[in-house]
């Protein structure tokens, strides 16, 4: 779900500012944040077992 929301936000940003190097940086940040959330969720799940 988070990836889909990030994709939607990225698409909206792209429509507003068109292409720029900043958009690539933003997309990279979204990917890293999403991976961090996934790893955190897995860690919490493992600790609660």
What report would you give on this structure?
- By secondary structure, this protein is mainly alpha-helical.
- Helices cover 88% and strands 0% of the residues.
- The protein is elongated, with a radius of gyration of 14 Å.
- The two termini are 24 Å apart.
- The model has no long low-confidence stretch (mean pLDDT 84).
Query: What is the beta-strand fraction?
Result: under 5%
> Which structural category fits the helices and strands?
mainly alpha
User: How much is the radius of gyration in Å?
Assistant: 14 Å
User: Sheet with the most strands?
Assistant: none
Features:
single chain; 2 helices; 0% strand
Short summary:
This protein is mostly helical and 49 residues long. It contains two helices and no strands.
SSE layout and pairings?
Layout: H1 2-17, H2 21-47
Helix pairs in contact: 1-2
